[in-house]
Amino acid sequence: MPLLDRAALAGLLTLSACASAPTPVATSPAAAASEQASVVQAPAEPLERWKTIFADEFDGPEGTLPDPEKWVFDTGGWGWGNKELQYYLNGPKNAFQGGGLLHLVALEGGVEMLDCWYGPCDYSSARIKTKGQFAFTYGRVSARIKVPKGQGIWPAFWMLGANIDSRGWPGCGELDVMEVIGREPRISHGTIHGPGYAGPQGPSSTWSPPQGEVGDDFRVFAVDWEPNRLRFYVDGALFGTRTPADLPPDEAWVFDHDFFLLLNVAVGGTWPGDPDPSTPFPAELLVDWVRVEVRE
Fold first, then answer.
1. Tens digit of each residue's pLDDT (9 = 90 or more) over 56-100
2. Marked catalytic residue, from 69, 108, 179, 296
3. 156, 174, 252, 276: which has the fewest C-beta neighbours closer than 10 Å?
């Protein structure tokens, strides 16, 4: 195809534009004013500003324990109120940093010398918390997590009232940001517990991915905590809201004081049931980061 010189090409473009342009339509001043009046400008949404008050990116040296200035361990094998089968240990076999992640690992065997509530222990795992290190009232708590799979495996990201030593459970309050049990691999639970609404009676909401299972990938589990309102999210999708109206009559809303954070992998228990031969071990909970933010 022959090339046109610049002048000829410019002329052709000008003619084409003139031919295709619509014929102007005269508008009376009254009609123009009416048209302008019908256009309502929506007010601009104010941009929320958040300040981070706690964060852990788990980027410590390979194989090291979680930052002791932020996290402490729970230890023991007494069942933890749920007839769980693991003994929680505080060593690097069950909890370590590596590859920019926190690894909480449930293992089978190797702890037969330890006593659990049912006899010599069959499993070990890890449970860490910020009790005594960090607690807060109101804000946004979130974590990017990949949960393990398998019958009897019970990972959780949750919160307890900092007054647990004086009030006990459930009077202190419990807020479960994420719980996944192995026999329901497509469901993440967000639940609250308090006096008169604990255990199976705790108001709960569930989230499932559009396809596949919760543990197929990393997910961001979050709660926005405000006075008299809790909103639960996975990957930015709201799936549950809790207010005092959700409680049984005359029961107290106890989410109005400091709470601390917990991460753990339980094995067995009254809710998930025991592991079976199909359960893969090790079962690893991987945590990319944990953050708490408050509105400025």
1. 999 999 999 999 999 999 999 999 999 999 999 999 999 999 999
2. 179
3. 276
Neighbours of 265 (CB within 10 A): 26
Phi and psi angles of residue 146, each rounded to the nearest 5 degrees, phi first = -115, 120
Catalytic residue among 174, 184, 284, 296: 174
Given a contact cutoff of 8 angstroms between Cβ atoms, the answer to whether 145 and 286 are in contact is: yes
Kindly state the DSSP code that residue 201 receives in the 8-state scheme. Answer: G
Closest CA to 176 of 187, 167, 186, 163: 187
**Rounded to whole angstroms, how far apart are CA atoms 232 and 187?**
14
DSSP-derived secondary structure letter, 197? B
Residue 19 has pLDDT above 60, yes or no: no
Q: What single-letter amino acid sits at 20?
A: S
pLDDT at 25: 43
Q: pLDDT at position 46, please?
A: 54
| 2: pLDDT strictly greater than 50 | no
DSSP 271: T
Whether 174 is catalytic: yes
Q: Is 203 in contact with 247 (CB distance < 8 Å)?
A: yes
Q: Does the structural domain 51-295 have CATH classification 3.30.750.24? A: no
Domain ranges of the chain: 6-38, 51-295
Contacts of 23 (CB under 8 A, 6+ apart): none
Give the mean pLDDT of the chain. Answer: 89
Q: Which two tokens stand for residue 137?
A: 């009232």
**pLDDT score recorded for residue 48:** 75
